[in-house]
TrEMBL record:
Residues 44-59 have a biased composition (Polar residues). It is found in: Golgi apparatus membrane. It comes from Prolemur simus. This is Hexosyltransferase. Pathway: Protein modification; protein glycosylation.
Amino acid sequence: MRCPKCLLCLSALLTLLGLKVYIEWTSESRLSKAYPAPRDTLPGPTTANPEPTLPTNLSARLGQTGPLPLAYWNQQQWRLGTLPSGDSAEAGGCQAWGAAAAAEIPDFATYPEDLRRFLLSAACRSFPRWLPRAGGGQVASCSDTDVPYLLLAVKSEPGRFAERQAVRQTWGSPAPGTRLLFLLGSPVGEAGPDLSSLVAWESHRYSDLLLWDFLDVPFNRTLKDLLLLAWLGHHCPDVTFVLQVQDDAFVHTPALLDHLQALPPTWARSLYLGEVFNQATPLRKAGRPFYVPESFFEGGYPAYASGGGYVIAGRLAPWLLQAAARVAPFPFDDVYTGLCFRALGLVPRAHPGFLTDWPADRTTNHCTVRNLLLVRPLGPQDSIRLWKQLRDPQHQC
Ligand SMILES: *[C@@H]1O[C@H](CO)[C@@H](O)[C@H](O)[C@H]1NC(C)=O
Ligand SMILES: *[C@@H]1O[C@H](CO)[C@@H](O)[C@H](O)[C@H]1NC(C)=O
């Protein structure tokens, strides 16, 4: 061996090169996750009109212009006037909508259990707040304190105490113009441990939990969106922006605030900002996550921002509620939000600083995150370390 050091160098270089290719490959394949493969996508609204409108014929707005597919959602959307409101008993109310779906979908029995459960109760959308028995833990209305510029509305689940605490200690910690709220279903659960007393204590201690009395499962996340929008109407109508985000995201709050403050006013008025999927279509592999049977939905998804975290203009809350009353239920919260925005004639805006499905080795690097607005997923410990590094002038990049 004439030059063992050269050989060592060469093999190290090759390893590094291989590693780089691998990292790029994995991050690309993971980024294109979600509901991939462009196919016959619905044509999107062409011009970005900044003002929401809600036409009488939503089918056309939602791109249902060709021959009407037989799939249940498409048929429903065609026929739907408004969904039965939760507290009315008109024509059997919200339960009747689900019962009809179960009866009219020929292969309903073969649907995955969570999709069946979703459809049975999908039109039931009014739920009372879940309040701790001992009282206390009231979430103050915005007028009682002051109106936030950016409300951080974090979708959590009752058992995820550590995730919530990490958010409170990091990107959700008090800052001028921001306010932090967590959105949760019932802490009683179905078969799991009863977390009522722990959640009641937490609610009392922090007064930042908005809880409603429904089963907290992923297919019920749209309820959190809709109940939040209704809460905003009553308690925080003048909020400028709302970040709807999962509790395993890391938000670079100062950078996000800077970005929002610099937006052109016409964009800001109708904002729907995040990591945007433009040409996604339903996944058809039964047994896999995000599976959507052909007999339920046909066509492409509207352009939508990934549910990992996106920002909307607060003034759109009442508009979105009106749209939701007339858009047939769909199991994925982010796709459903995309449908509602599309019904209003509004388009999402993509920002490359939102990365909602990033490899763990990147999300924990403060130098990469420094220039981003939101990354996900991150564990509580990683969030805390990252927040410290981002704020520490010693940690130069
Ligand atoms: C709604 O729009 C679609 C597509 O343009 C059209 O085929 C349908 O007739 C319209 N429905 C009504 C009730 O006007
Ligand atoms: C959502 O919550 C409601 C009310 O608790 C429940 O009836 C329904 O089954 C839940 N949805 C799913 C998909 O479990």
